[in-house]
Design a protein that fits this description.
The chain is an alpha+beta fold. The protein has three domains: 114 residues, Acyl-CoA dehydrogenase/oxidase, N-terminal domain (Butyryl-Coa Dehydrogenase, subunit A, domain 1, Orthogonal Bundle); 107 residues, Butyryl-CoA Dehydrogenase, subunit A, domain 2, CATH 2.40.110; 145 residues, Butyryl-CoA Dehydrogenase, subunit A, domain 3, CATH 1.20.140.10. It has eleven helices and ten strands. Strands 1-4-5-8 form a four-stranded mixed β-sheet, covered by helices on one side. It has a four-stranded antiparallel β-sheet with strand order 2-3-7-6, covered by helices on one side. A hairpin with a 2-residue loop joins strand 2 and strand 3. Helix 4 packs across helix 7, helix 9 packs antiparallel against helix 10 and helix 9 runs antiparallel to helix 11. The chain is globular and about 80 Å long. The two termini are 39 Å apart. 46% of the residues are buried. Bound molecules: flavin-adenine dinucleotide (FAD). Flavin-adenine dinucleotide binds next to strand 1, strand 3 and helix 11.
Length: 380
């Protein structure tokens, strides 16, 4: 029970929970092995109205509120692997809101509507080989050539990158202006000069695909500039707030799952003639983590309330992203420890969650960058 959620939210929760139980959980091992989840997942989620849950009806959306997104993030995590939820969240919470917020009517029809339906896969490309935390330091450059822009550069660690039909690419359009000379472009797969240089192999989130992308004299029509020229940095900073809240909701959900897995195991595993859950050092650590998880969960909900009421609390969002990522990893690490040697075996689910949740401390802004933002907000 929570005063944030209504019957409508619980109905969405039920739909997503059933979807995860039937269409995701039984196949996760297979997808982890394959290094991607099937394209049809996007289509199925589109058909269920999930991808465009907060979009206006005229673009195929369900016009639900912000809590609906939090419910979806919580339920997706129940599949026990982070890869598919991350790939879907990129489309749902990074690309769709950005196109909706900044797109022209023509772009909304051409890209938003099929993204909401799940007919296309999308990605957002900010990071580069030489610019991660320092977004303003990107080197991908676009020069105007008549009614086109010519893009050159490369992008690193792009989720959905190997199969995205459309990628939002962040590029410099005025080198001398730093973060004031950044623009967003919608780049379609198959555009000459746009190639997937490499599918990347990674520690966790293995059922999502991650790619390095390359742009070599890639001609993009001017009509595919997304948002205002030279204001792409501000657009991305806006987008990152939403991305961080959803990452926090997912991290808390994984922490909760780890806690439940850990308590179950500790109650069953007997050493020195009693369940290990009875050792005070173990039960107290569970209690400590449960308290932290609950506190961060309430912070996620509180931020959801503020966003729903048209507020964008950067300080609290950064705090929430920092704390949720930490508590998710600390819980996963403790629960792996509670499993002893079994925790290190691939047949136990905790090893996968432990690998997957480690990303939360890096993606969407590292712990250190969250510290920087919070410190700035505190005027330090
Ligand atoms: C699986 C995966 C999926 C991803 N998906 C996407 C995606 O879809 N789209 C996308 O654009 N990006 C994506 N990323 C990239 C991710 O956002 C970056 O990895 C992240 O922002 C960090 O950038 P970096 O890796 O270049 O590290 P760096 O910026 O090089 O940082 C290295 C270390 O230095 C620290 N550091 C940097 N600056 C400071 C500072 N000022 N003060 C203190 N410490 C500092 C960092 O915190 C970090 O510990 C993904 C990454 C991974 C691993």
């Amino acid at each position: 029970m929570s005063h944030y959620f209504t019957k409508e939210h619980e109905a969405i929760r039920k739909v997503v929970r059933e979807f995860v139980e039937k269409e995701v959980s039984p196949f996760v091992d297979e997808w982890e092995e394959a290094g991607e989840f099937p394209r049809e997942i996007f289509k199925k989620l589109g058909d269920l109205g999930i991808l465009g849950i907060r979009c206006p009806e005229k673009y195929g959306g369900s016009e639900a509120d912000y809590y609906s997104s939090l419910v979806i993030a919580e339920e997706m995590a129940r599949c026990g692997a982070g890869g598919m939820p991350m790939g879907v969240a990129v489309q749902m919470e990074m690309v769709i809101p950005t196109i909706l917020q900044f797109g022209t009517e023509e772009q909304l029809e051409k890209y938003l509507v099929p993204a909401v339906k799940g007919d296309i896969i999308t990605a957002l490309a900010i990071t580069e080989p030489n610019a991660g935390s320092d977004v303003a330091g990107i080197q991908t450059y676009a020069v105007r050539d008549g009614d086109h822009w010519v893009l050159n550069g490369s992008k690193m660690f792009i989720t959905n990158g190997t199969r995205a039909d459309v990628v939002i690419v962040v590029a410099k359009t005025e080198r001398s202006k730093g973060y004031q000379g950044v623009t967003l472009f919608l780049v379609e797969k198959g555009t000459p000069g746009f190639t997937i240089s490499k599918k990347l192999d990674k520690l966790g989130m293995r059922s999502s695909d991650t790619a390095e992308l390359s742009f070599s004299d890639c001609h993009v029509p001017h009509s595919n500039v997304l948002g205002r020229l030279g204001e792409g940095f501000y657009h991305i900073m806006w987008e990152l707030q939403g991305e961080r809240i959803i990452a926090a909701a997912g991290a808390v959900a994984f922490a909760q799952q780890c806690l439940e897995i850990g308590i179950r195991y500790a109650q069953e595993r007997v050493q020195f003639e009693k369940p290990i859950a009875k050792f005070q050092v173990i039960r107290h650590r569970f209690a400590d983590l449960a308290a932290q998880i609950e506190a961060v969960r309430q912070l996620v909900y509180h931020i959801g309330y503020r966003v729903q009421n048209k507020d964008y609390p950067v300080k609290e969002i950064s705090m929430c992203k920092l704390l949720s990522s930490r508590v998710a990893f600390e819980t996963a690490d403790f629960v792996l420890q509670v499993h002893g040697g079994y925790g290190y075996m691939m047949e136990y689910p905790i090893q996968r969650i432990w690998r997957d949740v480690r990303l939360y401390r890096i993606g969407a802004g590292t712990d250190e960058i969250m510290h920087e933002i919070i410190a700035k907000q505190l005027n330090i």
